[in-house]
Design goal:
Structural class: alpha/beta
Strand order of the largest sheet: 2-10-9-8-7-3-4
Helix content: 40-55%
Bound molecules: (2S)-2-hydroxybutanedioic acid
Number of strands: 13
CATH topology of the largest domain: Aspartate Aminotransferase, domain 2
Number of domains: 2
Shape: globular
Radius of gyration: 21 Å
CATH architecture of the largest domain: 3-Layer(aba) Sandwich
Distance between the termini: 48 Å
Strand content: 5-15%
Largest sheet: 7 strands, mixed
CATH class of the largest domain: Alpha Beta
């Protein structure tokens, strides 16, 4: 049996991490995997997370199973963080999942379970794992244009032209904020156009939100999701706490399914629990409990928000500095988009050859499609990157 197996293609993001690790050069810069790093290159445990973990060590008296959909206190707290009061809680089914990827996977399984023929539309480009999960499950897929590689902004006309072909019952996968890999985001007006269009078509939005708080702020980053949630009869949302709580390895995510009315919420809720049971049974609890402890405690929550805001503002400052350095070195404004993009990533529009040249000649590691993780920089490495970008002729 095992001899039937062939080699799997490497995940291009994780492969880059390996290559970086093996590079013996001192002065190398890792702009690969989407993990936050501070100016010292450390991915810290957030203060509120440490405090919540201390509380849990003292107060938790059992590690027995929770429920198949996770602890309702966690799913309610995270639902409020993302949706606020955009939609009646009675309509929202929710289940904890192993990370945001787990939520994407469970969401795709839910789509297949509910309607095997439904087509899922994905943006070009999108996070590579979206595509591999969809292909692995054999879900029918179509792509819509998203990014204009000339302006490095959203190609909204192209997007809407492609989505004109969406059919009733199709699912449209959208990034809630901080689009991965481009960093180019929809405006609130564009979200409204998308909502009107999907409503008219009878299509279902599926939002992946993994970077709330990294773009324009915790509330601002949820505006698009909330707008859709307040208007669409049905919707799926995959959420991750990996980045905004910095609990990457704890695998802390959630899938929400918004049902047309409270009556059908019950069936959706039971189905989410059933699907969890089939795939991994009970979801991990530690990260979820940490997140819930923080969100339900005013002091911890305020401290978490303050630290997250520092992270966000720090990334914006790096964006400004890089755009400024590039303006000087290239004697042009063609890299100003870096300051306009939001979140951890920007796609800078380098060719694969230029990306390789930056790696080989300058020790700068970014994903082959020229996605770079802004949080991999600090004030001292920004000029090095700017010089590398200009040197290879981007
Ligand atoms: C990324 O896009 O780099 C992150 O979401 C991490 C991952 O799992 O790929």
């Amino acid at each position: 049996m095992l001899t039937n197996l062939t080699q799997q293609p490497p995940d291009k993001i994780l492969e880059l991490t390996r290559l970086f690790r093996e590079d013996p050069r001192e002065a190398k810069i890792d702009l690969g995997v989407g993990v936050y790093k501070n100016a010292e290159g450390v991915t810290p445990v957030m203060r509120a997370v440490k405090a919540a973990e201390r509380q849990l060590v003292e107060s938790q008296d059992s590690k027995s199973y929770t429920s198949l959909a996770g602890d309702p206190a966690y799913t309610s707290a995270l639902r409020r963080l993302i949706l606020a009061d955009a939609v009646d809680a009675e309509r929202v089914a929710a289940a904890a999942t192993p990370g945001g990827t787990g939520a994407i996977r469970q969401g795709m399984e839910l789509i297949q379970y509910a309607d095997r023929g439904a087509t899922v539309w994905v943006s070009t480009p999108t996070w590579p794992n979206h595509l591999t999960i969809i292909n692995y499950l054999g879900v029918p897929m179509r792509e819509y244009r998203y990014f204009d590689s000339a302006t490095r902004a959203v190609d909204f006309d192209g997007m809407m032209a492609d989505l004109a072909e969406v059919k009733s019952g199709d699912v449209v996968l959208l990034h809630g904020c901080c689009h991965n890999p481009t960093g180019a985001n929809l405006t609130l007006e564009e979200w409204q156009v998308v909502a009107d269009h999907l409503l008219a078509k009878g299509a279902v939005p599926f939002i992946d939100i993994a970077y709330q708080g990294f773009g324009d702020g915790l509330e601002e980053d949820a505006q698009g999701v909330r707008l859709l949630a307040s208007q669409m009869p049905e919707m799926l949302i995959a959420a991750s706490c990996s980045k905004n709580f910095g609990v990457y390895r704890e695998r802390t995510g959630m899938l929400m399914a918004i049902a047309p009315e409270a009556k059908s919420q019950g069936d959706a809720q039971k189905t989410l629990a059933f699907l969890n049971r089939q795939n991994f049974s009970f979801p991990p609890d530690h990260g979820a409990r940490v997140v819930q402890t923080i969100l339900d405690d005013a002091t911890l929550c305020a401290d978490w928000k303050a630290e997250l805001e520092d992270v966000r503002v720090g990334m914006l400052a790096l964006r400004e500095q890089l755009a400024q350095e590039l303006r000087q070195r290239s004697n042009s404004e063609r890299f100003d988009f870096i300051a306009t993009h939001r979140g951890m990533f920007s796609r800078i529009g380098a060719t694969p050859e230029q990306v390789l040249a930056m790696r080989e000649q300058h020790g700068v590691y970014m994903v082959g499609d020229s996605r770079m993780n802004i949080a991999g920089l600090n004030a001292a490495t920004v000029p090095v990157l700017a010089q590398a970008i200009v040197d290879v002729g981007v």
